[in-house]
Design goal:
The protein contains 14 helices and 17 strands. It has 412 residues and is of the alpha/beta class. A hairpin with a 4-residue loop joins strand 12 (268-273) and strand 13 (278-283).
Length: 412
């Protein structure tokens, strides 16, 4: 056992604020587990090995569970986990009450979450996804993402395990069904886009589910995946606290490297994927081998724990990690005066910095012109602008020409 820290011991204490509704249903869920109504099974790692190290004994709700890391590949997972029958019942009966803290879907909740659907459509199109065609989302909840695709002209189908959420979405005129992937009859239907938005980490059998998805995806189609990325903690996700990220419903916790390794095994390669994690994947020939990130991942999680939620410390560390990859005069900085001043003051080596520009003095278009006309030798643009965390996309046309980083957020 190699716990991240003593905070990860099973003491029954939640690390997030809970409503009375959540507390009651956590108690009910825990009793179902203790009584044997819900059954568990041990699991083998996706790399085929079972040499695990326990790094946490509870989740953010204070629910007892073992989070383990595989010494052979570095994948983090929950073991033991609910078996398939118990898992399906959990998502229909317990999940909405514990995780969404509501008894039933609502119009307000739907409209607020519906904004994410537009972001997903834009992301897929930005990364060479189809502009039209058939879309499937599994784990679609009430159709909050599906509706964005439908409004943009795609043919849509959604699946979810919650009867109440499916019925709410159907009342919006959406084509939704209460089913898992393996049980639904698709006939000969295939899809141009399949969406797994905060779903893949919940699968109890990745090989089975991704095998079904591979068969449903057209040869030129794309698979969109979004889930909580471990290394997104550096940007303030979950208040930079890995313990707040852990939840018993999540069987897996991925970094970009560990996700891409698993996806390659099951026949998908990344078109684009970041540490957030948001990614677009296409079908490829399966590939078994990959990098072992065990030591790298464990060291990262312990560094996050040592930072104790100090985002400035994490940003300074990130800036130095980026700058250290480049030689003299190969890096250009762009961002607000306060942000750049803070960044520069905490760099260990300034030799690689060629110069910097402020948004109020040079537009992104002017900086791009400078890079192309007088920026010979530049290899990296580091964007540090708290006023606009998506500022990095102002430089999107440079993405194929040099390395472009955002200091405060992983590129989405």
């Amino acid at each position: 056992m190699n716990l991240i820290s003593e905070r990860y011991l099973d003491d029954g204490c939640a690390t997030i604020e809970l409503t009375e509704l959540q507390k009651e249903h956590i108690r009910i869920f825990t009793e179902k587990c203790r009584s044997g109504e819900y059954r568990f099974r041990d699991r083998e790692c996706e790399c085929g090995h079972g040499d695990f190290e326990v790094i946490a004994k509870k989740d953010r709700y204070g629910i007892p569970m073992d989070t383990v890391i595989c010494k052979n590949c570095g994948l983090i997972m929950t073991s033991p986990c609910l078996d398939d029958k118990s898992n399906n019942e959990f998502y229909d009966k317990d999940y909405p009450l514990i995780y969404r803290a509501v008894e039933k879907p609502s119009e307000e909740q739907f409209l607020e979450a519906r904004k994410d659907g537009d972001t997903i459509v834009d992301f897929i199109r930005r990364h060479k996804g189809p502009l039209s065609g058939e879309v499937l989302e599994t784990g679609c909840a009430d159709g909050r993402n599906i509706i964005a695709f439908k409004e943009k002209g795609y043919d849509t189908l959604g699946l979810d395990l919650s009867h109440s959420y499916v019925e709410f979405g159907r009342s919006k005129g959406l084509d939704l069904f209460c089913s898992d992937l393996s049980s639904f009859d698709f006939g000969d239907r295939q899809f141009d886009i399949i969406v797994l938005s905060h779903v893949l980490e919940h699968f109890t059998d990745l090989g089975k589910e991704l095998g079904v998805i591979r068969g449903l995806l057209k040869d030129e189609g794309v698979l969109y995946i979004a889930l909580p990325g471990i290394k997104n903690l550096s940007y303030g996700a979950y208040r930079a606290d890995f313990l707040q990220m852990l939840q018993n419903a999540h069987i897996f916790n991925f970094s970009k490297k560990s996700l891409c390794r698993v996806m390659k095994k099951y026949g998908f390669e990344s078109v684009y994927c970041n540490e957030a994690i948001a990614g677009v994947f296409r079908k490829c020939e399966p590939e078994e081998n990959g990098e072992n990130v065990y030591e790298e991942t464990l060291a990262y999680l312990k560094s996050i724990e040592a930072a104790k939620g100090d985002l400035r410390l994490l940003w300074h560390s990130r800036a130095n990690d980026i700058i250290s990859k480049y030689g003299p005069g190969e890096v250009l900085l762009y961002g607000g005066a306060a942000e750049l001043d803070d960044c520069v003051q905490n760099l260990k080596d300034l030799d690689s910095i060629k110069g910097f520009f402020y948004p109020d003095r040079k537009t992104p278009a002017q900086v791009i012109e400078y890079i192309r006309s007088a920026g010979a030798g530049l290899k990296c643009l580091l964007v540090a602008d708290m006023a606009d965390l998506n500022r990095v996309y102002d430089f999107e046309e440079l993405f194929d020409e040099l390395d472009v980083y955002s200091l405060y957020s992983e590129i989405y």
